[in-house]
Amino acid sequence: MFLKASIILSYVLLLSWFSTVSEGVQFNLTLPHQHPDPDVAVQELQRRVNVSVSKRQLLWNVEKDQSSCLTGNPIDDCWRCDSNGQSNRQSLADCGIGFGHDSFGGKGGQYYEVTDSSDSDEDNPKPGTLRYGVMQTEPLWITFASNMQIKLKEKLIIKSFKTIDGRGANVEIVGKGCLAVEFVSNIVIHNIHIHHCVPSTGSQKSDGDGISIIGSNHIWVDHCSLSYCRDGLIDVTEGSTAVTISNNYFTNHDKVMLLGHSDKFEADSGMQVTVAFNHFGQNLVERMPRCRHGYFHVVNNDYTQWKEYAVGGSANPTINSQGNRYYAPDNSNLKQVTARMDADEKEWSRWNWRSDQDILVNGAFFVQSGGGKQYAKASSMDVKSPELIDSLTANAGVFGENRYNYSGLLHTLNLVNFNGGEPSLEKFQA
């Protein structure tokens, strides 16, 4: 009898936890790590941006100090301006923003240095290899002894509480499957080239995504450069939440970023993903991102055209687009930023898709939809001026590589060697 009563009480408490009410708006909490009020998380991100930008403007405009490490990007300003950063690389873990801001990775764990670029045995990898490090059960902060290209034989399955930190080396990951974040938590992937990923057909099958995030939480992908993969560059699916994708550089790909498994996978209604300060560069087609069910904050990104659409979705996702620059292609039939799939206008007109202080260039236009108190609340937030988008996304991708801006001009990022204080201006020597 006591057991039966306990089960009933647990069920009632679970139902109570799954549904909360805030200002008359009901949030369906379908995943244990999602934020109960996502617009609060959005406001906190904007507060962090405003503080960083204000500090930068004070130094540059008032004190005429242009040598500062400050850029206005709250993530980079956090760790690049840390005077103790060289002796404590793990301070990066305190610099996250958005829904994945508590993704601490391997913070507090031992350092593990990758000294061997081989990947000859996926079941019993050699100590010193990347695969050996990511398969350990304890928290680890993984660094690299030198520049290296790691050609994977099978997808790289990463266990919980790991940081893969490529600062100070030029690290490329290519080959079969690439990075697999599956049913784990607290993963940080930082400053890594990921490209030419193809499907793996052995015991660990994969579609050929650059980074595949499945059923996981507290995941942060920052300052990576991704291109030329067989399927998606980053896919977040099957109940993943508390994810931030920031400061990355995406190029030369068709289906860039999928957020949500399928229209029928309703558990993804608890998915919450921040997409911030990324540069969507040349030769991209679609899915920047393509969303289903959840809440997606797309903020202060730079879009260098597209070949089908930029931001799309189905199954009633909430898309909050703030302070982005959308540069449309010259083709007059491709000016629309947005694309709704698998729904007629009567249905999608109720979806909350909002554009707030976005810069729409070369005829680009964003079709908004939805309404109500929650829509008005999010749209009234203080969005930092999108004119600062060049500064906020200037260092997107792996430090030290060339890229094109939205005007088609080539520039080089010179910050390569992590030295814990002001950025080094030394170029990477291959």
UniProtKB/TrEMBL annotation:
It comes from the Eukaryota. One of its GO terms (biological process) is pectin catabolic process. GO terms for molecular function: metal ion binding; pectate lyase activity. Pathway: Glycan metabolism; pectin degradation; 2-dehydro-3-deoxy-D-gluconate from pectin: step 2/5. InterPro entries: AmbAllergen, Pec_lyase, Pectin_lyas_fold, Pectin_lyase_fold/virulence, PEL. It catalyses: Eliminative cleavage of (1->4)-alpha-D-galacturonan to give oligosaccharides with 4-deoxy-alpha-D-galact-4-enuronosyl groups at their non-reducing ends. Residues 147-332 form the Pectate lyase domain. Residues 1-24 form the signal peptide. Binds 1 Ca(2+) ion. Required for its activity. Its EC number is 4.2.2.2. SUPFAM superfamilies: Pectin lyase-like (SSF51126). Its cofactor is Ca(2+). It holds the Pfam family Pectate_lyase_4. The keyword DNA-binding does not apply. PANTHER family: PECTATE LYASE, PECTATE LYASE 18-RELATED. Belongs to the polysaccharide lyase 1 family. This is Pectate lyase. The lineage of its organism: Eukaryota, Viridiplantae, Streptophyta, Embryophyta, Tracheophyta.
